Q: What sequence folds into this?
């Protein structure tokens, strides 16, 4: 008898955490809808996953900042398909003092990290609630969500938004078939640092996690129905301590942790 594999959609699946979400889900028996802008990368990942795991994989490339692409993505991903997991993983940051950075860049961070995430959470959350099968909405925030982060102000604030938003709707949806999990990684080895123009100093490097380990923790938490997970033991310690620090001190310490090496 053929085994029915559930479907998951992963955004930002062309590199970093997204690739590991796709790999680990395929190995756990899921079929996948993968999206990001770089089609060549998505296609080679899809080919490898079909060959190695027998998963069905649909590739839909495009820019999530564009509402018309989000329309097309939702329509194609849900056509004759019931998604049971949506991972809003695509996101990026930019390190710069706020007034010295380009406003267009701040706007791009806000559009992808917040607007696109809320839009997909709403539309695909309704899709999952309506079909009624056990489902998961997984939103990727950051340990930057736990305090103000000078020189990373817009990014960290966007992740505070993701965390608050996700925890609030997790509460609202607790009585439904849709479990919501917010994942807060710390520094993780992906392309994120290069995109953000970020160089980690020695202190920040202490908590550096592999993408594979981060995703393993994230998926275990999501599949267990947990509402919030901070990945990596040092990140857990730091975010726990942050609860007791005055906001000014937390901002000062996070500014120090963001200083480039040297
Ligand atoms: N790595 C870290 O240290 C770290 C720490 C905390 C939180 N996070 C969060 O983890 C998530 C994954 O990041 P990562 O570390 O895996 O970084 P990454 O390797 O740079 O991957 C980012 C992904 O987002 C996609 N993306 C970027 N802009 C997009 C757009 N406009 N439309 C569609 N897709 C877009 C990229 O694909 P294309 O370029 O092909 O579109 C890529 O697949 C992000 O939300 C990030 O904020 C990362």
A:
């Amino acid at each position: 008898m053929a085994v029915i594999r559930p479907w998951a959609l992963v955004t930002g699946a062309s590199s970093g955490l997204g690739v590991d979400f796709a790999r680990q889900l395929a190995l756990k028996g899921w079929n996948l809808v993968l999206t990001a802008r770089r089609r060549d990368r998505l296609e080679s990942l899809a080919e490898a996953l079909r060959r190695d795991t027998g998963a069905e994989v649909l590739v839909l490339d495009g820019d999530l900042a564009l509402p018309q692409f989000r329309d097309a993505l939702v329509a194609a991903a849900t056509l004759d398909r019931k998604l049971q997991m949506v991972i809003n993983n695509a996101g990026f940051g930019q390190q710069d003092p706020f007034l010295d950075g380009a406003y267009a860049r701040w706007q791009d961070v806000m559009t992808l990290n917040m607007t696109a995430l809320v839009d997909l959470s709403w539309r695909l959350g309704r899709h999952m609630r309506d079909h009624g099968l056990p489902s998961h909405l997984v939103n990727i925030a950051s340990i930057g969500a736990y305090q103000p982060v000078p020189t990373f102000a817009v990014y960290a604030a966007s992740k505070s938004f993701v965390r608050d938003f996700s925890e609030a709707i997790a509460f609202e949806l607790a009585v439904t078939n849709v479990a919501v999990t917010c994942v807060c990684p710390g520094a993780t080895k992906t392309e994120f640092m290069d995109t953000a123009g970020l160089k980690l100093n020695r202190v920040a490097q202490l908590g550096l996690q592999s993408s594979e380990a981060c995703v393993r923790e994230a998926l275990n938490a999501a599949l267990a129905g947990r509402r919030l997970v901070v990945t990596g033991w040092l990140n857990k310690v730091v975010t726990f301590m942050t609860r007791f620090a005055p906001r000014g001190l937390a901002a000062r310490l996070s500014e120090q942790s963001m200083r480039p090496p040297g």
Summary: The two ends are 61 Å apart (CA to CA). Residues 7-258 form a domain with the Rossmann fold fold (CATH 3.40.50.720). The CA atoms of residues 65 and 115 lie 8 Å apart. The first strand starts at residue 7 and ends at 11.
